[in-house]
Amino acid sequence: STDRTLEIVKFFSQNPNLNNEANNYSKIKKINIKNYSPGRALNLGVKNSSKKYIMILSAHCILKKFNEKKIINSLENNSCLFGNQIPIWYGKKITKRYLWSHFSDKITINMYSELENRYFMHNALSCFKREFLIENPFDEMLAGKEDRYWAIKSIEKGYNIRYSPEIVARHFYTTNGNTWKGVG
Question: What crossing angle do the helices spanning 146-156 and 38-47 adopt, rounded to 10°?
Fold first, then answer.
């Protein structure tokens, strides 16, 4: 990362005021990765996690709405939940066009994207059972869209993927992002 992410993480992992039972989210492990790919990084994080449930939240997203109890209940019948993303470009909400049009207010099981002509899942805000991801990892050879290909394989195996609009994150524009065509 070139955006000082490691420096920020070190601040939280070294802050003794955050390292207690009430703030156990600050128990951070730094793991080096060789031959980076998005799938490899996600799989490595899952393998090194210790909790029953996993939430993936992209570094350029801010979680705005989250109901842990509902998510855990929904994971009993679905292999994955992914949430609503509000696109933010230079500090302002933008119109949900292109990829962003998938993020509506309607709960959807096994969302199909007419734009991409395949099943759709976006892991920038997603939740899983840890064991399911251990048994069904992301493809480590892909340089992108690992979430879409993971969704296709999961659905073909008979698993359900639920789009849950009640889980919400703001997704901030990144200059190297691939999903910002037609901003505005």
Answer: 70
Among the listed residues 127, 119, 124, the one whose alpha carbon sits nearest the alpha carbon of residue 46: 127
Give the pairing of strands 80-89 and 161-172: parallel
Residue numbers in the chain where pLDDT is lower than 50: 182-184
pLDDT of residue 163: 98
Length of the chain (residues): 184
The Cα-based distances of 166 to 19, 107, 110, 123 in angstroms read 30, 9, 17, 15
Predicted confidence at residue 60, as pLDDT, reads 87
Task: Please tell me the distance from the alpha carbon of residue 8 to that of residue 24, in angstroms, as a whole number.
Answer: 17
Rounded to a whole number of angstroms, the distance between the first and last alpha carbons of the chain is 27
Q: What is the pLDDT of residue 6?
A: 77
